[in-house]
Design brief:
Length: about 375
């Protein structure tokens, strides 16, 4: 017995000292998990190349370069083995680029990827040790940079009608471009009118009805960020991650359902009630956040019930920030807030389960009561006969 325990301890210590975190599943290395995510990210990135030209590809390379360069330099000057090969930095930089508009400056995803890896990954000890999703942190930093850029809208001239709409919105927003128009690869992109610069969420906040049809929702032919261009491909990517067991799908499903329900309760007055959840789920960042940020297997709770609770609360907070936040993409900040609660939620679920309070226990008790009821009725029938 002592010999067996010693062998097991030696095996675990060998894993700890000769492989990098996280130890998510046996017989599967972190680079394979990240490869699954990279495939899903490229699935949703490729359609945007047909909508905007090669600019999304350049932004993806920029974000990847920022994330990979800081990790390589960090490991080099720390005199530690290089960890770029685990592909986590590549996935983080690509995810940062997908959460930005195609008309973003080329330097923006570079800074986002750089900050994401430095502040939310390496500062906590590396891959799998940070409580925060690095891509969410990088995009939030990019949002703050863009929001503070006073030159974004000063160069645009508006009519009186456009100024009335602009007064209902923050003065500094991301500049979006309608799909179907090839963008310059490196030059800055600035739409000529306010209507070309507003995504669907900003239009709704300004009291404008985007008037999208069913085909628009499926094909994503409306202004938005790179990763939200094609909702059908997003669903395919989610299916791929579920098959590869690289997605906390309970958290993602809880997030989407809570956003849809909250949208019905907190509707836009100028939009038909049934269209509110459709706009909030398909024509915004909801699907991307659900799949790649909320459904991140490394930052979401590990308990199944905890994942549902995590996703539902994240959806409520996300829609609240979207309605009252400073700009339409404020819901990205909900991810960082919920990342902090993942461990406490797991502890709460474990505490309740240790005292017999759980969904599984309640279901088992209900089934036992039903069985006892039917068995008692059968006994009464036998006695009556």
């Amino acid at each position: 017995m002592i010999f067996s325990i010693g062998k097991v301890w030696s095996f675990l210590d060998n894993i700890r000292t000769n492989s990098s975190a996280p130890f998510f599943r046996l017989h599967e290395s972190p680079d394979k998990l990240m490869l699954n995510r990279l495939i899903a990210l490229w699935l949703i990135l490729l359609p945007s190349l047909f909508a905007y030209g090669f600019r999304p590809f350049i932004l993806a390379l920029s974000g990847t370069a920022g994330a990979v360069s800081i990790e390589a330099l960090w490991q080099f000057f720390s005199k530690k083995p290089q960890t770029v090969g685990d592909l986590s930095a590549v996935a983080t930089g690509l995810c940062c680029a997908c959460m930005l508009p195609a008309s973003s400056p080329v330097w923006l995803p570079l800074i986002a990827g750089f900050f994401a890896v430095a502040a939310a990954k390496l500062a906590f000890g590396g891959f799998g040790r940070s409580p925060f999703n690095p891509a969410a942190v990088g995009v939030c930093f990019a949002c703050m940079l863009r929001f503070a850029d006073l030159s974004v809208t000063n160069t645009l001239t508006f009519t009186d009608a456009q100024k009335k709409i602009w007064e209902l919105l923050p003065k500094h927003l991301f500049l979006f471009t309608q799909p179907g128009k090839s963008l310059p690869i490196f030059a800055d992109c600035e739409p000529s009118t306010i209507f070309g610069s507003l995504d669907v969420t900003s239009q709704l906040r300004a009291g404008i009805d985007p008037q999208l049809d069913f085909g628009d929702f499926l094909l994503g032919t409306y202004p938005g960020f790179i990763g939200g261009f094609f909702p059908i491909i997003m669903i395919v990517a989610a299916g791929w991650l579920i098959i590869r067991r690289s997605l906390a799908w309970r958290a993602s499903l809880g997030f989407i359902c809570s956003v849809a329900i909250m949208s019905l309760l907190w509707r836009y007055d100028h939009i038909f009630l049934a269209m509110c959840p459709i706009y909030d789920v398909f024509a915004s960042s909801t699907l991307f956040i659900a799949v790649f940020l909320i459904g991140d297997t490394f930052t979401a709770p590990k308990m199944r019930s905890g994942q549902v609770i995590y996703g539902v609360i994240a959806g409520i907070l996300s829609l609240t920030l979207r309605r009252i936040g400073a700009f339409g993409s404020s819901d990205i900040f909900a991810v960082i807030i919920m990342n902090v609660t993942a461990a406490p939620i797991d502890n709460l679920v474990w505490f309740c389960r240790s005292r017999g309070i759980s969904y599984t226990a309640a279901k088992r008790n209900a089934i036992n009561r039903i069985k006892e009821k039917f068995s008692k009725e059968d006994e009464d029938d036998v006695i009556a006969v």
